[in-house]
Amino acid sequence: MKKVLVINANPKPGSLCKALAEKYASVAREKHTVEQIHIGDLNFEISLDDGYDKVTELEPDLVDFQKKIQWSDHIVIVSPVWWGTVPAKFKGAIDRSFLPGFSFEYIDGKAMPKQLLKGRSSEIIITLDSPPFWYRYIKGNAIYKQLNNSILDFSGIKNTSSTYFGPVINSSSDKRNSWLKKVAVLAQKIP
């Protein structure tokens, strides 16, 4: 049994991402302990105005966000592609909470910081309004590069899979139901 954290990175209350996250969580609960975060429910200032130069106190929702990340064995991020990458509110949660001392630590004399979230795995589920092949191979797959290479891997979290659903715009209810079924299958195969 694993401790699974499912993050819906879409702030819209009635989004396909939320439905996918809910489906994943409900199926994963059959074999695992599951916590959920819906980014739209969190209250916090998204901007890290002083960068790392000054400690900005975390709001209670971001403290909870950090606690759930530390608690988890496996993190599932369900995110739409907005302007090529993740929604601003989700990026703000990362900026504000994946801080030195939480997700990484600078070491004197070392080029690379110590990864503080090692031992966790992740899975990325992405929705987009363009064809996945076009986004991944023509547009450069910015969301994957940002999430996997620049955030997860940098912190020590190893991504095990990435799944793309699209185009969402003008998709039929049958198509969306097939995506929900695929998410259910993914939730049954947590590594």
TrEMBL record:
<dbReference type="Pfam" id="PF02525">
    <property type="entry name" value="Flavodoxin_2"/>
</dbReference>
<dbReference type="GO" id="GO:0005829">
    <property type="term" value="C:cytosol"/>
</dbReference>
<dbReference type="InterPro" id="IPR029039">
    <property type="entry name" value="Flavoprotein-like_sf"/>
</dbReference>
<dbReference type="GO" id="GO:0003955">
    <property type="term" value="F:NAD(P)H dehydrogenase (quinone) activity"/>
</dbReference>
<feature type="domain" description="Flavodoxin-like fold">
    <location>
        <begin position="2"/>
        <end position="170"/>
    </location>
</feature>
<dbReference type="InterPro" id="IPR003680">
    <property type="entry name" value="Flavodoxin_fold"/>
</dbReference>
<comment type="similarity">
    <text>Belongs to the NAD(P)H dehydrogenase (quinone) family.</text>
</comment>
<protein>
    <submittedName>
        <fullName>Putative NADPH-quinone reductase (Modulator of drug activity B)</fullName>
    </submittedName>
</protein>
<dbReference type="InterPro" id="IPR051545">
    <property type="entry name" value="NAD(P)H_dehydrogenase_qn"/>
</dbReference>
<keyword id="KW-0560">Oxidoreductase</keyword>
